Amino acid sequence: MTMQNLARTAYSQPLAPSRSPRSLEYDLLARASQCLRLGWEHRSSNFASLARALQDNNALWATLAADVAEQGNGLPAPLRANLFYLYEFTQHHSRRVLSGDAGVDVLIDINTSVMRGLRGEPGGCG
């Protein structure tokens, strides 16, 4: 299941137990990070899994960027700008990974930092 499908499913299940958007975002970022890690580990034998993990992570970040770009978004403007910058960086860095010029560690670090912020932990992006 792609990250877009997971996000769509998570946000559209009316009978699902009540979960906060922060909790859903945390879970999606955790899954994306796990897929990036596994895709990177198996890149030599299954490059398609790495490409899929990058695509799914980019789709998740595109969704987050669209959300923070909305005029009614309640996050502070500086945080919204930082998150949008991370989206742009993620897109650019993913292209570098696909071309063999970079690894996925920084993408996982970004996701982890945002996850810490969603949990309210020090050093997080939120």
From TrEMBL:
Keywords in alphabetical order: Cell projection, Cilium, Flagellum
Polar residues bias: start-end ranges: 1-12
Annotated stretches, region: Disordered: 1-20
GO biological process assignments: bacterial-type flagellum organization
Keyword NAD in annotation: no
Protein name: Flagellar biosynthesis regulatory protein FlaF
Origin species: Falsigemmobacter intermedius
Designated gene of the protein: flaF
